[in-house]
Please model this.
Amino acid sequence: MAKKSGGPRTARDKAMPPIETLIETIVEEAWRVSNLPLADQMAEKRPGSPFPPSIPVGMAQIHTSNRGFDAIGKLADLYRFEPPSLRNRISKETYAKAALFAIGDSIIGFPDLQLSTDADWVAPMATLFKEKLAARLVNTTKNQTQYIPCHIFDPDQKVPAFKIGPVTFYPRSDWLRSLDAGVVRIDLIRKVWKGSLSTEELQKDAFSGRSADAVRGAFAAVKSVGGHFWVAAVKVPDHEPIQSTKKGTMLVSLAMDVLSLLLVPTDSARLLMSGGQHAAFSERSLFSNDQGKLFDRVRIHMHGLGGPPGHAKKFLKGTKKLLDAAGVIISRYDTDAASGRSSRLVERWINALHWYGQALREPSDFMALVKYGCAMDILTDGTGNLTQLAARTAAAFGIEPDAVVTKDGDKLETIISRVFNEGRSALAHGSDFGVLAEKGDQRALAYDLVHKLLLSFIEPLAAIIKESHAMLTLEKDEVRAFAGRLKSFAKGTGAKAPAGKRRP
Model:
């Protein structure tokens, strides 16, 4: 490594692109610190670490300052967003690690560099860094299919696999048939599920020295699926494994939230997704009485939708049009997220759906109100403006803001004020409190409003996606542009404004 033989370069005063400025900072700090006595080099520590910041250079490393090390993180962030398609496919942590090693690779590429005399080294090193970073990221992404265990319908309903956009929901017997029997020992999984082979026996066989990957795969399936009777599958191509799992889980969660939109709240509570914000199979609480005696209480949650024979098939048949339309939206979101360029209209519906699902499963009334309020604000782009919220909500229902929508004579704008101002805003901004307060009536109104808003968007939004309408490319005022389509659709279908009092 060449030593620095003079003062700081005056080229720093020149206007340079942000990437080149960071490259200059990183290298100059490494050179500056490397010229210090070893004791001084060791004096500067990374937060939470007993060691000084360092850059791997070949089989060795050189110490740098926290300023130089932080500049590497900023450099990684700049490259992470260019091209945008990598934004959601590779994690920030992976990019930062690759950038750290790529800087070391780049320094090796300039073995005789003299910072004080070589005036034009920054741009060439920035070019080399980009090449080295790309080489470090090769093979980072993989093509994977994510499998998420869940409960949808009772097994005795005999419902076949069905799709919502990119997500396929399989009864677990159908899921087994979708696997490659040449790669996974499907016969062993069936034996465990039928009770002729214990999980412990399969585990012992899987981790014996003679077992093949197919046996270990069978054990992984048994442990992961557990007692769930359904498995959701979604293909996530060209993602880093951790990001692939994150995206796959979110897509399944969104698809399940679509199902919740088409169910009454008590039935929605019976949907279960492994790793999601869903009720566990059971809850056990421990308590004592005044005499100090210990007791426990067990609350069992029934999962999976049942009913008379054929009930679930009838439900899917009756909701197929809406499920298909919602699937169009989720598929578009899936594609947009992979490209790094999302339609704002699609993002609004997807984000509002996510908030709705969170609110639906929220045990606390006051937190549910805040989440429903967020969903409503996102869908209408109300930005807290009550008049705008009311006007755009009314457009979705094909009515006027002052239309009477309840048996008690409440106008739509009154309900919106009650939900948004007295509910979401008051609780979020601290003018009202409610950690343990029961706000069931407000919650029921909020649920009804957001539930119907989300439903009103599905078919019109799916239609403009199929049309590749220019509305999808708008960077602002997209909700205002979409309002006309919503209003005409609502008048044609007779969409209903909120009126219910059911507690979600």
In short: The first strand starts at residue 54 and ends at 57. The beta strands are 54-57, 60-63, 142-151, 162-164, 167-171, 230-239, 272-273, 282-288, 294-300.
